[in-house]
Amino acid sequence: MKLHKSNFLRQLKAVADQKQNETFTTWHELNGTIGQEYTFGGLWEEAGAIAHDLHHKWGVKKGEKVVLCYNFGLHFFAAFLGCLRAGVVAILVYPPFPPLTKTLTKMEKVIKDCQPVLILTDVTIMASKKLDELKPFSKSKGMWPKGIPFKVTNGINFLTKDGKFDEEDILESDIAFYQYTSGSTGDPKGVMVTFKALEANVKLLQDGIYDDFARDGLGADDIVGFSWLPQYHDFGLIFASIVPFAAGWRMHMMSPISFIKKPLLWLELMSKHKVTLGVAPDFAYHLVVRKFKEERSKNGGKSPIANFDLSAIHGLQNGAEPIRLDTRDTFTETFSEFGLRQDWFHTGYGMAETVVGATHMPQYKLSRPRGEDTRRFLAVGSRETFHDSLTGKIVDPVSLTELPDDQTGEIWIAGPSVAAGYHGKPELSREVFQAKLPPEGSASDQDDSSTTFLRTGDLGFMQDGCLYVCGRIKDLLIINGVNYYPQDIELAVQSCNGVRPGCVAAFSSDDSGEGDGQLEVVFEIRNANKKTAQTVCEAIKSAIIQDIGIVPSKIIALEERSIAKTTSGKIQRRRNRDLLHANQHKAVFVLDQSSMLEIAATSGGPQEIAQDLPPSEKFDAIMTLLLGSCYDPDSEWDENGLTSLILIELNNKLAESFPATIPSDFPDQYPTPAALKKYILSPNHGSFFPVEVPSFDTSATRLPWPVVTLLQGVGIMVLFLMLSASTIPSFWCYKLIIYDGAPPALGILLPLVFLLWHIAFTLLVCLSKWTVIGKYTAREVPVASLYYVRWWFVDRTVHLWEMLIGRYVKDTPWLWLFYTVMGCKVHSSSKLDCFLRELDLLEIGENAEISFGIKCRKFGPWQESGRHAGSPTLRFRPIRIGDDCVVEGQVGPGVVLGDGSKVEKLAAVPEGSQVPTSAIATGSPAHQSGMAHPKKNSEHDKKSMAVLRIIKCIWPLMELYLTFAIAGCVGWAIATGFSGFEWRYSTLLKAFLIIVPTGIGNLLVCIPMKWILIGHRKPGPVTNNSIFQKSLDWMVDYHFFASLVLLDLVAENAVMINGFLWLLGLDIDIQTKVWCVHFPPSKVDLITVTKSSLSVAHFDVKQDGEYKKIHIENTSIGHSVTIDGGVTIDSAQINPLTHVTANIQATMLFFSIIPTYEFYQVDFYVPLVGFPVVKMALALAVFCFSWFFLLVLLHWVTYPSQYFFGARGQTKPWSLAMFAIYMDLHCYLWDFSLLPIFWGTPFFNLFLRGMGCNVEGQALFFGIRLYDLPLVTIKDRTIIDSCIVSGHSWVYDGVYIGPTTVAGVLHEGSFCLANTYLEDSSKETHPMQFVPPRLNGGEGI
Questions:
Q1: CA-based nearest residue to 183, from 548, 460, 532, 501
Q2: 1146-1160 vs 1216-1232: helix crossing angle, rounded to 10
Q3: pLDDT tens-digit readout, 323-335
Q4: What is the mean pLDDT of the chain?
Q5: pTM score
Q6: Residue 225: burial class (beta carbons within 10 Å; 0-12, 13-18, 19+)
Q7: Any transmembrane segments, and where (predicted)?
């Protein structure tokens, strides 16, 4: 018999035609807004388009199987209807959400069982699949189905389809879809639902709801439904989707994830849209009650939902899991004052084997005691609510005879709603779906011996015509609403050492049917393992978590031969549970929640590994610390529970403990701990460097903290005065050049005005150093001392010089001259492409190349005792860099680098290390990884380098004239265009409009300079290595970097900058996000970067006398990544920190200068110096505070809930655009606001508090960056020295935010991102290391 034209699908089509333009369902997002809507006609048309493509585009035939793998949303139901219309068997699977290893494993088993020909999906799941497959260390990327095509159905257009849409030859006996049960993970069972069963069950549910509404005089038009149930689940698919569509009801829906995140949104939307019919499992009713009471208490007793009204609700269906007896009363008591009727509570009973529903109970009724059994059960149906064609029996599961009322037996059901059986399991199908009562087995007058029944496996009884369910025959466990088979859990337990096989029982703590219980496990432990019973129990816990995915509440080790069994040797699970709860088991050890907490407390969380252990034992100790005592050295990393965060910490621990280079992808290179151990302990590695830390002067004059603060305040005012006083020579030079009647030729001297300010401020910096600190010596001083204040003043002065002047003279002899005057012993042939501090303590030999900043000081933690108690310390030690050394990484105080040695990028040489001659230092902490072979310069080379140094002296002056020439042209154009335009801020506006075009003009000059002076650079041997070519490369790169200073804000991560870099020769697409500064013109021809995002990256395109191409595609490059020439990076994620920004803040930058301009217009003259020095100094202070208030405002807008309400649960910014603006302007503030003057003082802590940062007590900050301040907590006695601390992190699908807490001493190069938690003020981080995020309490995410 054909079904399509006469029955179910015909009914659906009639509804779609009748209600063509009426809204069927609305999808609500997490914020309550409408995400998507479908009309009845629109949904039916999209389903038809999918049916068309299934047949005509993808070649799927009637009866073939198609998996529906969709994110929560309305597209799933359209695809499901499309399969029905095409006669294709739909396979419903849980969407692949994290943890992907679990969900993909379940999907793999379903696919293996049903053998589909196609997988239909949406753009969200397809994007997740592609991104997961890009991740280098993803444990799930190889688990996605292979050999079966994925097809995305989003956007399929109904109007473009020709030919028939529907399969006409659909019979009642044809399979409509498979519903896989959520039971045993090892043996999935696909329930085969026929069109006949689907139609019958839809009618059963419709009739039950119609009857309920009709009793109150309501009809179908009064039904407005709401559901957040998962659509792949039978309850959500049938009750909340198919039934409403077939009946023509109005529906509202949202994601179950939205409900979990925001439970009260369910109530809010039901109130807002006057919902009359809702559906949810039992736990949901208790959850919203608890959340409502919590929010109401916070709201001063007022309802947290505005205009809250539940009077429209006619009934709420409770199902899909066991129902607690107090659900109705608790819910009614909480919400009756908001109009909730007393008889809202509806229950029901069903399962996938009956499509979804078997009975319906529109009232609350409890059972009476039955003899000695005084337990109360909740009625889930009655004989009256069974469908006319549905039969229910209570049968003795052993004798197979029907039982009378009040006797407990197995529930049997017969009728058209019963499914056809389990796919591929004929024997099990006959046993479960084709049970029969013997002729004498019926308790009724009619003969039921010919009727085939479904054996539900549930225990229940009939009383007063009502059905009560009281348990399960097969000991099925329901934990958190999910079914688990005890056999699977017991198998996982038996895999652990020390467990007697066949002597394990797993059960739920509550099997009364009143609600979910918790997993409890008892097992017999071998006598030989009694002393290590705790370890065995911990191993069992890990095995259950890893294999099953749930956390047991109790694990009990029993004496041998004490577990309860039947006489035939079968485990008695219920008996063991009863013995456990009665404390009658012979327990050897009990691992429960309290003992787990005790173990954690006594272990103290992550521990330090003793460095004097033998190497093999040290390795094992690290593995035990991070992977647990039950880790298997011969099992692969994912089997040992290695996560991405443990990977970071493991890498750090190994680097600290062994002189070996640990590859970032070691899980791929060395797939097991044993393989990695063999590599690390091999004799081919080097060794840690010997350390010498001689004693030094520790005497210092202690000062009270208020005095230190006062002196620093005075120092800040002096710094502002120095900045303004340095303009005096420039002012008089300007007056001499520009005066009435001055010849125009004098205009050529205008650049000298700028140059004189550079010289004047540089001389003041040198003078302040020699006046305030004199000559640095090796010593240790408390921060609360006069010497610290003197050092701080000089350090802030030098930092200002680096910001304003030093950036223009890096890698020039001018920088060498400045450092020589400041007391540094640096050879004139050395190349300095970085900044140095504490210069008297630094000695740099001949031909050394320094590209990483060097500081001859180091902070120590707050002292609890001794002469420096109550203060942190600051140590100064000399550093010596030998001849021909190359320094690309960090060098600590007291380090001596032998001649010809090399410190590689991202290496950190510890304090006092003695690096031998020609050694290569790698890692953090650094170890010797090989021998360097420095090239000795010939006399010709020395002469060539001297010529290059001369060029580097002259070229900055030429750049100055070039910039002024461009600025003059721009200024003339603006003056002409604005002639006659008068406004109070017209002068300021003109100056601002000159700066931006000047920067753009300078950048545009880079393009012809690059192609004329460098040309197109190709991979291959370096054929032209002359001093002339080196000079040209340096000049073009210098111009590039100097030009970016004026446009730092708009040149980073802007779409237009990709076009500029493309004109320079970079192979880049429009989608890629980059920091322009990392692509100098001399390298761009050798780099290809597409579909990627790059933060701080360094490209070594010239290696071993060759230019080597670098390819980057589909990749995220994080902070401080170095990429060697010749490397191809495809589909990878490097480092979690990626900085993506936008460029719309130019107007905000202009307005931040207005307060400074206004202040300067005040008549305030100091005749003693002939120039308003004090006035300008105060104007600079106003400028600094203007930036501060702008940042406060930006924090308010970017993080309103965190700033004003202290909220910490948010995981994403409320606006990505606002977040991008914040990040860009925040970076600009750090560089140009003059706030670094306040670093290291209590005044800066006040700034941090004003911007929303939680600073708990005393703290010292000395750069580099603090982001997302309302999310950051700085503990008392914390020192942040040249680190990055933020409350965000970038991953493939966007930016995530979270609380960050730091404490102790964070040394140079440390990175702390969202969800980092450090709380020990006595601890110090290692330099150049990423601190893995951790949850409060030290538990990894």
A1: 548
A2: 40
A3: 777 788 889 999 9
A4: 78
A5: 0.55
A6: buried
A7: 67-94, 703-725, 745-767, 953-975, 987-1007, 1177-1197, 1217-1239
